[in-house]
Amino acid sequence: MTIEFNYFYYAVGILFGCQLLLLILLSIKKTRRNLKNKEQEQLYQATLNDFVDFLYEEGRPIPDKLCNPENIEVAERIFSETITDINDPIMERKLQDAAISIFTEHYKKRLLKGNWPTRINTLYFIEDFKIVSLLPVLQKMLQSLNKWDEEKNQTILALAALNDLTLVYYLNQSADTKVNQYLDVFVRFDTEKFDEAVHISNDMKNFTCQLAIINFISLMKKTKYQWMVEKELQSENIEMRIQALKGLYRLNYMKDVSLLVPFLQSPSWEERLFSTRIAGALLADQFEAHLEILMGDEEWWVRNAAAEALLSIFGEEKLVQVEFSHTDAFARDMAKQWLTSGKRGSAN
Amino acid sequence: MGVTALSYIFLFLLSIKNVLREGKLIKTESLEDIAISERTFPVSIIVPAYNEVVGVVSTVRSLLALNYPQYEIIVVDDGSKDDTLAKLIEELKLEQVDLAIRKHMNTQPIRATFKSSIYSLVTVVSKDNGGKADALNCGINVSKYPYFCAIDGDSILENDALLKVMKPVIDSEGKTIAVGGSVRVANGTTISRSKVETIDLPKNPLVILQIVEYFRAFLIGRLGFTKINQLLIISGAFGLFHKTTVIRSGGYKVATVGEDMELIVRLHRMIREESLDLQLKYIPDPVCWTEAPDSLKVLKSQRVRWQRGLAETLFAHKKMFLNPKYGLIGFIAFPYFFMVELLGAVVEVLGFFLIAGGLLFGFLDPYVIGIILLVTILYGSFISSLSILLEELTMFKYPKVRHLILLFFWALTESFWYRPLIVIWRLEGLLKSFRRKEAEWGKMERKGISSDNR
């Protein structure tokens, strides 16, 4: 009993000691962090004006303090905040060159020796500051990463920001690349690089990549590729046709509106929905009869889109007519809703 | 009590790895793509409100300030007896409209629907009283977007909250059907227009201990369970859901007070029964601030209600208990909630009686009991201090050393007064669960947490 009892004394001592130690350590950490934050804030305030002068005045050097490795976090903050506010290409170039000279060596070390969060944060900065000098390091890193996780994803995004076209080949060769991953890459490419990516994709005939391209063209309103989107209406794959319809709706343009007819009668509600939306957006009055039928569609979204289309093409009178004379109760309800709240664009 | 404490150590070990890995990431960077992306799914935010005249307008205003590409706000007034609806009509300049509503779930009748003439995102539904679950189901019926977010009528979301909870959905390409985030106690902080301006600790020890309790529940409990895909609770104060999946599962169950947990358990059950490749996630980022009870009366009512909800949910899904058909959920999370969270209170009360009886009749040595109690108390506060450690490693929201000392100090006192009270109320909740009662709203005396409201 005495020996067991001693264990309790030890337990009391250990538990109390652990908590006290934890409190002391956390207090020290918090004090240090607060102190560091204060120092960094002071340095930031003291350096910001010099940095702005460097950006705007010809021949001014980068402020010395920012080149000091000890002040790297302040430099990162200043670059991050500045880069989002600058639109002038010459100044962007100046900022990028400055970032390359300050961060390259430091980031190389972090990528090779840093722990996981350090590497990920570094990849964020490489992407933001477009540190092209690290392209070979990143390419090597990508080859060594097998598991598709946050690190691999962020490495790809950083490489995309550096306009590395080999990424398209890399992604096309990987069987499990998703549409969103292509989109993340395309959105970072310059226009010329995207044009080249389209050519590569057409040559390689990778379905996921082509789906992503159709998606991207419409998201970014790249009207010069509208023909590609319209062509995909003939695709045998329903997913591709839906993306093409969605794309044409976003682009708000079709060369041949009559191509919509089969989609307005399609067994797929998504095809009916997007073709209805396109008809409304393009004010295609030849589809009046189709739209009236779609007001009584089994799918709520299609009825909603049909009401919106009829309202935009033919005005309120048409919806009043539907409200009182349509044979379908759902169609009448939808017309009523659009007549009371549709003008604010607040359809339920 | 020992089992409870040991399970928390196990969950802490599961959480710490995640915290050390992801706690230092620059969060805003990882959200940049989502914030500007047209691929982000639009979300309907549903705010069920019952007698929320104090906070509901500031909640709506805070929601209007959210950083998210496309969303709508649906306030469902569940037949409030106070001036909730009148206040909404006046402040949001509501106009009555006819809405064509899809009836996915049956609810109490809708009295009227309104649209704000100044904020096009806002819809208000006035309906007959039917309880929180009924109000949420009504909100789902009215909603138009593929995801919905349920929040309490007096919660304030941080302005990037929706982006944070949507990230796991986008990353998983839709395989994540529900996401919960950390809910934090707002008492003591200054919040304006969805932005937390200053963080401080409240003076009331009752609230301070709830802060510690929230750390423990969210940073140790939920983070640990989500690591092994066993998350059984997403707080009713804030959760994001895939609408079609929730509708398929039957929506919120009306005849329970624990509608939030019941839905999550039912979703898990559906996933297992239909072998679906879907998951539920929790993110440790604090995304929602809520007002904690600052009186014993209200805290008691809340805890009795929580425990009753837990009991009702576990009994309703008892089939999952130790059933191999439900995989590890049936063998880890379900037994944990049953043995620790539900029956733990019974065991603790029995323990108290046993000790009191032993001391009274002289078959226990007071000295031995004293030492054992001391170890138990220190162990309990040690677990709390580990949760404070996790908070410091992830969010370090409380900026001063004074905050740390206060949190540690009150955690040390928890076992003397706070825990016994909670245990008794949990027991009361368990007993009440045997008496069938209609679902009701919790009674919370709101003071309002947003400075916009004051």
UniProtKB/TrEMBL annotation, chain A:
Species, as recorded: Psychrobacillus glaciei
Transmembrane segments: 6-28
Protein name: HEAT repeat domain-containing protein
Alphabetically ordered keywords of this record: Membrane, Transmembrane, Transmembrane helix
Membrane keyword on record: yes
Entry superkingdom: Bacteria
From TrEMBL, chain B:
MF (Gene Ontology): glycosyltransferase activity
Top-rank taxon: Bacteria
InterPro entries according to UniProt: Glyco_trans_2-like, Nucleotide-diphossugar_trans
Any Pfam family: Glycos_transf_2
Gene3D superfamilies attached to this UniProt entry: Spore Coat Polysaccharide Biosynthesis Protein SpsA, Chain A
Transmembrane segments annotated in the record for this chain: 328-355, 367-390, 405-427
Keyword annotations from UniProtKB, A to Z: Glycosyltransferase, Membrane, Transferase, Transmembrane, Transmembrane helix
Domain Glycosyltransferase 2-like: 44-193, 226-381
Family affiliation: Belongs to the glycosyltransferase 2 family.
Stated name of the protein: Glycosyltransferase family 2 protein
Organism: Psychrobacillus glaciei
